[in-house]
Design a protein that fits this description.
Number of strands: 10
Helix content: 25-40%
Number of helices: 9
Radius of gyration: 18 Å
Shape: globular
Oligomer: single chain
Strand order of the largest sheet: 6-7-8-3-9-10
Largest sheet: 6 strands, mixed
Length: about 240
Amino acid sequence: MSTNSDNHPILQIHNLEYKREDQFRLQIPDLELNPGEVLAVIGPNGAGKTTLLMVISGMLTAAKGEINFAGEHVEPWRDLKYRRQIAMVMQSPLLLHSSVFENVATGLRFRGVGSQIIQKEVGDWLKKLGILHLKKRQGQKLSGGEAQRTSLARALVLKPSLLLLDEPFGALDSPTRVSLLEDIKQLLYTTGTTAIFVTHDLDEALFLGSSVAVLVNGELRQTGTPEQVFNAPIDPQVASFV
């Protein structure tokens, strides 16, 4: 896949539709994501936020539409090369029954990365996320915040071109959530990682997002900077939510 220029969107979606039981669950006329952009996807419960991430990741298959990544058309459910350039973090960390180190190393091992590089890269990301001291602890014995930090390290160690985050802070208590939000914001912006994150928390969207997309009833209603969306909602339904 060709290398994307910073002058062009890394992700472009056109006329994307997803159906379930013959009913529209998602309709995205146009959505673009630039390199280094952190897009917060917000909307009421059931608006289609997680569905959007699942379609982009290839876990769900769109009924129609086009997805372009780094200037090339992709079919996420078929394109292994594309899927290897994205990483996804869910609300529940879903860790393996092994140590923190081995959990974070999993993706690199699947890709055939050498052991010396794995030692360095995993160690670096454990340190960046403040869990290096936990590297030998079993994943099932971690607190919620520690487990989510491990899950984020497992994704970021792959240096994804696109990081998908599905409410990764939603299940955490307030102090843990605030601390992790601050750390992940610093990491995303210092590494220039392009990300889409789903949240039901408007404060999270304002704090972490460089742009915002609003979904209502499966339809993309508005995109823009946080200031544009929150200060000038496009219609009454968006205004009611924000």
